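Thread: Modeling a multi-component assembly for a lab meeting

Hi all, long-time lurker, first post. My supervisor asked me to bring a structural picture of a complex we are working on to next week's group meeting, and I have zero experience with this. I have the sequence lines for every component (759 residues in total). Could someone generate the structure of the whole assembly? Inputs are pasted exactly as I received them:
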Amino acid sequence: MDSVVQRVVQPVVQPVVALVDVVAVLGSFPALAGASLSVNRGEILLLRGPNGAGKTSLLRLCAGLLPVERGTATVLGCDLVADRTSVRNRVGLLGHSNGLYADLTVADNVRFWGATVGASQHEIDASLTRMGLANRLADVQVAKLSAGQRRRTALACLVARRAELWLLDEPHAGLDATGRDDLDVTLRSAAAAGATVIVASHELERAGALATRVVEVVGGQVRQVAE
Amino acid sequence: MNTWRIARLVAAKDLRVEWRSRVVLNQVLPFAALVMVMFAFALDNDTVLTRVAPGLVWLATMFSLLVIVQRAFAVETADGALDALQVAGVRLGGIFLGKAIALAAQLAVLELMLLAAAIVLYKTEVVADGIVLLVTTFVAATTGLAFVGTLYGGLAAGAKGRETLLPLLMLPVVAPVLIGATRATEAALGTENATPSDGWPWIGLLALFAVVFGVGGTLAFGSLIDE
Amino acid sequence: MIGMLYAPYVIGSYVVTFVGIGLYTLRILAQARKAAGQVPLQDRPWS
Amino acid sequence: MTGFMTSTTSPAPSDRAPTSTTFSRALGIAALVGIGWLIVFGLFLSPNDRVQKTGVRILYIHVPSAWLAYLAFGVTGLSSVAYLWKRTRSLTWDRIAGASAEVGVLFMGITLVSGSLWGRISWGTYWTWDARLTTTAFLFVTYIGYLAVRGLGGTHQQRAKRSAVLAILAMLEVPLVHFSVTWWRPLHQNETVENGKLSGLMLFTLFVGIIAFTLLYVWLVLHRQRVLTLLDQVDDQGLDVAIVERRNEVVNAQEVSP
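Re: Modeling a multi-component assembly
Sure thing. I ran the full set together rather than chain by chain. Output:
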């Protein structure tokens, strides 16, 4: 009876990310020790917390890279406990590493990662333009770029991937002022278009202004932050 | 994206990486040539060298294979590209086939150079009626080596101590190729009065090897990589 | 009885065999004893 | 002894031999008796062979250990298939595969050492590039590689999946290696044992050897598998403790932060 009323008042919206008491291990170390988190469609969630708290592991778990040791985890309706590979292709992850081929040019890289999801040449050009790379940088080898320029390239690859859930680990790090503005515009428009964004960052002012909600990750757990 | 399109994409990417970096061309080929010269120092006898030339060509191929495979997977793991491929939901069987194709292309160039080195340094002579057998041997052996190299290279890629683990795992497996390809090459070149008809049964073994590890690798690669 | 000529080979092979097996067995038992202190009885399906 | 008297928490017998059961103890005693018999018969009671002279005595340990090494690798392969086949992904199959491979490598090492000592007596050389010898040597190296991969780390299920796939690849590889070396060196040296030229007492001694080594194999795999279970459980418990510690970082962080 109760549930019927609820369904009438508030239509059941399945959260994009639903983690309940998740434990995940790196070797024998519990990087996540009972993390629970729920994220809805269109949110831009900021994960903050000290180094080694488990932010990166949380993102990798949502991307289906890190297996769920205990607890339940559903991302985009896919049960990660049953098959963590099922969510792939629908999420995009920008981790600590950029996932770039250093010997290839910027355009080569974006073209390759775009092609993995069948992106058109137009979409690839648009991604390069979005991150301010559609200039002379496009034909430079990634190995010759600065750290910030590589980060931009990795973001352009992510844009070309058209993911439903964006997972970004310290995306602002190394970027200059224009790069940060480009990033914020990109993330806002992705969220506006129905994607969900989770950002782990230490730059609380910058990312806090961007985020629609903030949670704190400490000791492998997620704590709500009163705002 | 179906497996075959992924394979073409990955193969083109790997060959482009080699085209832009020229690591195999500038480092592995000279290494292989050096090995051929060192064999001559060690054996120090023209008659013996001509006699064992086919074996030395394939032995030098095996050593170079180890180096090329390390390089092929270092490209994927250096900046987390292998993780990114998994998050992108790329079919791992497609990655296997693509990397094997690129590896086979590089091996083919290497083997041609080694054969040329044997002709110049070891007084090996290619005879006309053995040419079909020779080409068939190189195609069959290269295919098998590329499959095994990719399979075990992928297994060792994420592991600690990968540099030492790879030879331990791979060399026992490629032993049948070393034996089969050497005997078939001897038959094709007429070493010790062998005739091409002596070589064809070995082609059967090489082909069987290529098929077993091609099918086995496409099926197993995913579960070896996806940890 | 063992012929004198090849006695070192024969005895050597027996020694290598049983010393090898013996050392491996001791290692298993030592590991078992070390681990056993930390695992309660109900977690050993065989006991 | 005093330690035993004062200890109240755990019963002494299970702590001194925690992987033993009545069955395994009986098995172990039987294996020991078998080995005692083997040594008595093999070294003293059995006669010299007319052709091989005293060298035949090595065969009483060489042949059984070779047979058990092959059996052990077969068990590893089948357990790996069983692990991947069942949707439950039972780690028991994985531990049996690992235990059997370890024991197989041990027996294969014994086979190679005793075989080359026998070859030195019978053929006058430690090694010959005969197909069977060569295949055996490759098996030895292949399963050393398998054990190295088992030790790579990761979760128990990751280890199990990776090594099961590798064991199945090894099963594909072995026939290929065997075919290639058989074609390469088809000539076999004299196979006295297989041709059944041994006298009654010699055959009996060989029989004793096979029984003793088989009992030993079962005992070793049984115990090794149980030890691996204990070690996995110690890992799991370590995880429980580590989770509690990890969760306490929250409290500590609260104390530190303003």
